[in-house]
Amino acid sequence: MSNPYLIELALKHFNCTQKELAQRLKVSATQISKWKKGEHMSTDMETTLCTLR
């Protein structure tokens, strides 16, 4: 299950672009876009995103 709002929250929290968030997470900017649209995000990635500083 994916929560597109989690990506939006991270973008606002870090005041960054999708590309910058992708770099922090070591994924492509395209993947960030897919998650924003509701595509599945692994539990591990959700955990990584929630613990990102």
From TrEMBL:
InterPro entries in UniProt: Cro/C1-type_HTH, Lambda_DNA-bd_dom_sf
GO molecular function: DNA binding
Name listed for the protein in its UniProt record: Helix-turn-helix transcriptional regulator
CDD domains linked: HTH_XRE
Domain of life assignment: Bacteria
Short name of one Pfam family: HTH_3
Domain HTH cro/C1-type residues, every copy: 7-40
